Amino acid sequence: MTRESQGDSRTESGERSEPRSIDWTDTETFARALDRADTREKGNYFEAFAEGDLIEHDPGLTLTQWGNEAWMSQTLNHDPAYWRTDAARERGFDEPPVHPDYLTAATLGITVEDLSEKGGYFLGRTDVRYPGAPVYTGTELRVESEVVSTATSSSRPEYGIVTWRTRGRDAETDDVLCSYERTNMIPRREPVATDGGGGSAAAAEEPDEPDLPSEFVTPDGGAFEDFREALERADDRDAAVAYRHERGRTQDDTTVAGLPLATLNTAKQHHNADVMANSPSGDIVTYGDVTRSTALGHARSDEDTYREVGFDDEQFHTFVTPGDTVYAFTRVLEAEETGRDEAGTVRFEHIAFNQDETPVYSGTRTAEIRKRSS
Ligand SMILES: CC(C)(COP(=O)(O)OP(=O)(O)OC[C@H]1O[C@@H](n2cnc3c(N)ncnc32)[C@H](O)[C@@H]1OP(=O)(O)O)[C@@H](O)C(=O)NCCC(=O)NCCSC(=O)C[C@H](O)C(=O)O
């Protein structure tokens, strides 16, 4: 006889007995068991983050040729320098390097388990930079984040707003390969009382939207000189250098769930359709890095990119879900000579938008653009 009824599976002589067998396949029994069981939770609530905390992320990731090529092909980043050795060498690389968008997405993906797996929204990112030498496949990535700030959301009492500075390092040399500052809304364990929505009060005071310029100028080509000439044509007139890109990319299982999982991004938003059915989007949503990389891919296909320098003021305005199509619109802000023969520096503003012409992402980008003469 055992003493199981007292929660003890020992026999009266003190020996352990087998736990009582349970028929887990009986659906009623199993439903009662699930009701009674605690869930081993993943991720951290807002309350876990305090300014100055340093978090060393446990997951690491080897930047593989497969990961790089899957990312680039699916987001339409088809620049030959990242695909062909001769084109890579001509650009000054030893071999086709890791694409900066894949590097950025992998750096962020590794952080999700600690920073944002609990849910919430990826609001934006700035100061995305690549301080190291070109990165090649086979590099092992180690990532750390520091909490820059935490804030109460005045419009959403169930969330807080956290900003982190993240650095992705070469695990072998410790060199920083990618760094940025990112802001997410993170669910609170306990909602707080707020002023009931600073957002709407602020919206009421918003000034009128500025008028569009009367003319949009399109560059004749994709070389540095083409952007500079277009800016000169727009100068002193009520005009902007701005145009849309023809390509679109409809979101599917690969882009929505496959690409983030390949960067170890465990955010349920991208792969758990069951949970997301009861969320504001009603469905899984595209990883912000996939949305922006796709829009950037469209933009790069209409220019002679030489090197990426950095990205600022990135914001994600609304969800992208399976079946949505990601398009891109570009405005050219400035084109600067840097005294180099091969390339000049151009600053762009890129907007990703969906099939309903609703902006889903915006951000600025600085890139070196090849000169026609080089
Ligand atoms: C998130 C939204 C639903 C919010 O929309 P809306 O209701 O219109 O609110 P506000 O625009 O007023 O913003 C709410 C509060 O957040 C602050 N905010 C907004 N942007 C930033 C920013 N870049 N930096 C700092 N703070 C920001 C505002 O000031 C408001 O503050 P408060 O008034 O005090 O409350 C909507 O924007 C939305 O749906 N966005 C899309 C989100 C998205 O789809 N992201 C990408 C996919 S999710 C993802 O990739 C997850 C990723 O894997 C990960 O883990 O991070």
Automatic annotation (TrEMBL):
InterPro entries: HotDog_dom_sf (IPR029069), MC_hydratase (IPR048274), MC_hydratase_acr (IPR045672), MCH/BMMD (IPR052342). GO terms for molecular function: lyase activity. It holds the Pfam family MC_hydratase. CDD domains: FkbR2 (cd03451). Signal peptide: none annotated. It comes from the Archaea. Residues 1-23 have a biased composition (Basic and acidic residues). NCBIfam families: methfumCoahyd_Halo. This is Acyl dehydratase.
